Description:
Layout: E1 6-16, E2 26-32, E3 57-59, H1 61-72, E4 78-82, H2 92-100, E5 104-109, E6 123-126, H3 139-149, E7 154-161, H4 164-176, E8 181-186, H5 202-219, E9 224-226, H6 230-235
Parallel strand pairs: 2-4, 4-5, 5-6, 6-7, 7-8, 8-9
Antiparallel strand pairs: 1-2, 1-3
Binding site for Mg(2+): 44
Subunit structure: Homodimer.
Domain Radical SAM core: 22-237
Amino acid sequence: MTGGAIRVSEIFGPTIQGEGTLIGEPTVFVRTGGCDYRCGWCDTLHAVDPTFRDTWRPMTAEAILARVRDLSGGRPLVVSLSGGNPAIQPLGELIALGRGEGYRFALETQGSIPRDWFAALDTLVLSPKPPSSGMAPDWQAFEACLAAAGAAPRTVMKIVVFDAADYRFAREAAARHPQLAVFLQPGNLVTGKASPDEAADLEALAARMRWLVETVIADGWFAARVLPQLHVLLWGNRRGV
Ligand SMILES: C[S@@+](CC[C@H](N)C(=O)[O-])C[C@H]1O[C@@H](n2cnc3c(N)ncnc32)[C@H](O)[C@@H]1O
Ligand SMILES: Nc1nc2[nH]cc(C(=O)O)c2c(=O)[nH]1
Ligand code: SF4
Ligand SMILES: [Mg+2]
């Protein structure tokens, strides 16, 4: 891979953003390959597990933007950079080129790797990982991500909640960073296949979402917003939607 190459797992859309602060917005997704974490419940193992490495392609920023242009018919919209951990990749040039054409950029990351080009984003979604993931958040790196972004992008937190311990973690994370809007997302238990294509367990998701809403309300945490993964409700665990 050359210095400026970006490792891409998949580019798809337009679809709607299914999660968090931009929910419902028409979006093209650029999913990079490779992650420094390995969450037990990751729903995107095909962009994480190195056994999928030969499906990841090195692409230049120009080639990615050309694909985004193709998919969007040249009409600017939101481009969501996700992964894997997109912060591993050199995305500054793609963001600069795309913004020059009117595209807006959002990026989803766990907050483990700060980059100076975070400041060029429109939206930064930081998703620190709760206990159920099996990963421990690195708060120093998380704070370095906030500092790198500065005041330019809208930075929010999106925290996956499976259980009461995750909920307590979310409260603590929010207390550490009271300036950030918080989105709570009920966890979706994928069945462990590396690239799940099966229907989601909608009953279990609804039950977890009800529990989470009841918990937030009983707790009086009125600054939190609770949202499902809309794309999972509509299309299950299918890829590319
Ligand atoms: C696949 S990750 C990729 C970006 C980055 N690595 C991260 O974790 O933020 C995108 C979002 O999906 C969430 N996510 C992953 N697996 C999930 C699951 N099983 N249920 C609910 N959300 C999940 C992550 O927490 C993150 O907010
Ligand atoms: N529609 C849709 N919305 C999403 N929001 C976050 C996604 C992701 O996997 O990062 C995602 C995704 O894969 N599809
Ligand atoms: S940090 Fe994100 S992409 Fe990486 S394993 Fe966890 S959920 Fe999956
Ligand atoms: Mg996903």
